[in-house]
Specification:
Strand order of the largest sheet: 8-9-11-6-5-12-13-17-14
Radius of gyration: 32 Å
Shape: elongated
Number of domains: 3
Number of strands: 17
Distance between the termini: 74 Å
């Protein structure tokens, strides 16, 4: 039974309020009437603010018909008011009106309707009390009018602003003049009516977000601090609002106030009015537990949910997807099980953060986004893209998290939710980034243009034939792996003799990163990596992988970021190996950044690449000075992973050429990566690299926004999460080569 009996609603019997003389909204029967006629029936000038070209309608109420979009919020309000009257007056006729458009499977029962009616009627005694509630229902979404928002917020009218906040500001005492202009009826109300309306509107809990588990537990804080009768009035108005949310489809019936929604409302009301539940965490977990019972979770699982947050993210997702049955929940868990590990980890972490002990994201319109993607694509696609959204919101907010802040940051997903519901959002292509707009995070599509590599002239492979080449991983780690891979391909096709693989690192001053059992020390910073070499400390060491491959040339690690030191030690190695060429390998393309460019170090790390490029410039100059012939190349593998937006210009300036992979190279590359366990199968063991995974994806035809098999811990790091989603283009499968000196001149131009 719905615990409405616990709610004692405020009443005001004032006789001289203009609200006492309005025509009841229940007299509105036909939403197809002329709009102006409907507005006349409502008799409130505020109603006109709910219709027209300036309305930013809710995403799920927007379609291709612009005229319909302009009426959608008005019709949703009409529906909410109709629902209120059906429940206020009760009776068989009103029951049939409310449920006429509902399916037989989910229809609100007559018993549920009666219980709802008894609660509404007993707590709204008299038309005045009802009209106070009607006025609240009429004005609470006026913040969706963009002209009103601009008039109220002024310079604070950011790209995205919570429409509830707009109305709260308009109701402040210092906005009396503006309020008299925009809300003329409010100014005529009694002081008592104004106070109760203001208090209800100022209640910050969005009950709809709570019912859908869209909001994390910290969202309950302000509601817990409120008092009666405000709590009860707020609950009532929100329930009416939710019931009318599909009024743009049918304003005379409620498509949403079905038996499942009734039970969801019952669960929400129960925990919000239960004095035994003393904290926001317990109220929230007990609400999820009530929903979990309907999903078919057993007692042990429900106990885990309450006590340890196990299943929290799954139940929240089921609520946001508006599921109500064990079959739907099982469908969800099956879909989650098929997702890549890091995708699962992001969903679990981000939807378990409570905002009280950890910083939490509120995905505003997240349910609409999920339902739209599920409708037009698939449940798996919806979940995967939602993980992308949550991670990008986290990355945009990482400064606050690094500083140890808690609380909630709201990510406004209304625009992408609208696109999802219209079927225009492609989750396989629409890469996002978030920026701050006021107190909200607002998404913007990330333009990832195709690099024009196929238009570059072909590299003359005769330049490599028979050369003794040192392959130099310019940024260490994955670059060293790719240097070994390229040496393998060149040896296979061009009779190249690889003399050494050198991985350039930069941890000389980091006492937490050490090596044991290295081979010969060459120079001050260059050491041989052998089969026996191991790391000391907790860090990602990859060079031993290629050192254990007997088909690969001797492997060295050069630990320095100083061009002079790199130059000195490489010159020693050139003399020792008799190399007549050196090829610096960068994976991803951050070597194309202009010199001294300040960028996000979690996106790219061009400083080390530039230091090595400078060293190659110095080596080339030295060989020309003493007449020693030495070819100095640079190769970029998997371009586009972390290239600058001006990459095409830089490729042109450096006279880059495309290196043509042979038909059998994809097989060689994928099999070699599998043998090295760098194909994503051992990421949780520390064997991973973003660019190798991106290159494999591109070579095997996996294009679009792809989740890479990076470690879960990297994906969910509180302070420095790695982006696991990457836009893979056909150009990502390519390799480009150029003279190192020409690239050096280009980045310093």
């Amino acid at each position: 039974m719905l615990p409405f009996h616990r709610v004692i609603l405020y009443t005001n019997a004032m006789e001289h309020s203009p609200l006492s003389h309005q025509i009841p909204v229940s007299e509105i029967h036909d939403v197809d009437h002329d709009v102006e006629q409907q507005l006349d029936v409502l008799q409130l000038p505020e109603a006109k603010l709910l219709i027209g070209e300036h309305i930013k309608a809710s995403p799920e109420s927007q379609g291709a018909d612009e005229a319909a979009n302009q009426r959608a919020e008005y019709q949703r309000t009409v529906c909410s008011l109709n629902v209120m009257d059906y429940l206020y007056y009760g009776g068989d006729e009103n029951y049939h009106k409310l449920t006429a458009a509902q399916s037989d499977a989910n229809r609100l029962t007559r018993e549920e309707f009666e219980e709802f009616h008894q609660w509404v009627a007993s707590n709204l005694p008299g038309e005045h009390s009802a009209n106070v509630m009607r006025y609240i229902m009429l004005i609470h979404d006026l913040g969706k009018n963009q002209m009103l928002t601009s008039a109220v917020m002024g310079e604070d009218a950011a790209d995205s602003v919570d429409h509830d906040e707009v109305l709260r500001r308009l109701l402040r005492s210092d906005y009396a003049a503006k309020r008299a202009e925009l809300l003329p009826t409010f100014s005529q109300l009694s002081e008592a009516d104004q106070t109760i309306i203001r208090d209800v509107i100022n209640t910050e809990l969005n009950l709809g977000q709570f019912i859908q588990a869209e909001a994390p537990p910290a969202a309950l804080t302000s509601f817990a601090e409120s008092t009666e009768p405000v709590r009860s009035l707020y609950i009532m108005h929100t329930l009416f609002d939710i019931a009318g949310a599909l009024g743009h489809v049918n304003a005379e019936s409620s498509l949403l106030l079905t038996s499942p929604l009734y039970n969801q409302m019952a669960a929400a009301c129960d925990v919000l009015t239960d004095s035994i539940l003393s904290t926001d965490e317990t109220r929230y977990s007990h609400y999820l537990a009530k929903r979990a019972q309907r999903f078919g979770l057993d007692n042990d699982a429900i106990e885990q949910l309450i006590n340890s947050q196990t299943h929290t993210h799954t139940v929240r997702l089921a609520c946001m997807l508006r599921y109500d049955s064990p079959e739907e929940y099982q469908q969800l868990t099956n879909a989650l099980d098929t997702l890549p590990g890091p995708v699962q980890a992001i969903l679990a972490q981000e939807l378990s953060n409570d905002g009280i002990h950890q910083r939490a994201t509120l995905p505003y319109y997240g349910p609409a986004l999920l339902k739209g993607l599920e409708k037009h694509h698939s449940l798996s696609a919806a979940l995967t893209y939602f993980a992308h959204v949550l991670q990008e919101a986290h990355i945009a907010d990482k400064a606050a998290r690094k500083a140890g802040e808690t609380g909630i940051v709201t990510a406004d997903l209304s625009t992408i939710a609208q696109a999802a519901n219209q079927g225009t959002l492609d989750p396989h292509q629409a890469e996002l980034r978030f920026h701050h707009s006021g107190e909200m995070l607002v998404p913007e599509y990330q333009d990832t243009p195709e690099l024009a590599i196929d238009s570059l002239p072909a590299f003359d492979s005769e330049q490599l034939h028979g050369k003794r080449i040192i392959y130099l991983g310019m940024g260490g780690g994955s670059d060293g792996i790719q240097a070994a891979m390229l040496s393998k391909l060149h040896q296979q096709h061009h009779a190249v003799q690889p003399t050494a693989i050198v991985s350039v690192r930069n941890f000389a001053a980091d006492s937490n990163k050490q090596l044991a059992h290295t081979g010969r020390q060459i120079g001050d910073a260059l050491a041989e990596i052998t089969k026996e070499t191991t790391k000391v400390g907790d860090w990602r060491f990859l060079e031993d992988i290629i050192a254990k491959d007997e088909t690969i040339a001797p492997v060295y690690l050069l630990n320095s970021i100083e061009p002079e030191q790199i130059t000195h030690d490489l010159q020693i190695l050139i003399r020792e190996t008799g190399a007549d060429a050196i090829c610096g390998i960068d994976t991803g393309g951050d070597v194309l950044y202009h010199a001294n460019t300040a960028i996000d170090p979690t996106t790219s790390s061009p400083d080390q690449d530039y230091a090595v490029l400078t060293a190659l410039h110095m080596i080339k100059a030295a060989t020309e000075a003493d007449g020693t012939p030495l070819d100095v190349f640079t190769a970029i593998v998997a371009p586009g992973v972390d290239t600058p937006p001006y990459a095409n210009d830089m490729l042109a300036r450096s006279n880059a050429q495309r290196y043509i992979l042979q038909p059998d190279d994809t097989t060689t590359i994928t099999q070699t990566y599998a043998a090295w366990r760098m194909d994503g199968s051992a990421s949780e063991e520390g064997l991973y690299g973003k660019t190798p995974l991106a290159w494999i994806a591109a070579l095997t035809g996996k294009h679009g926004l792809q989740p890479l098999a990076l470690p879960r811990a990297n994906a969910t790091s509180a302070h420095n999460p790695w982006r696991i989603f990457m836009s893979i283009r056909p150009s990502t499968a390519r390799v480009v080569m150029m003279q190192a000196e020409q690239l050096y001149q280009a980045v310093n131009h």
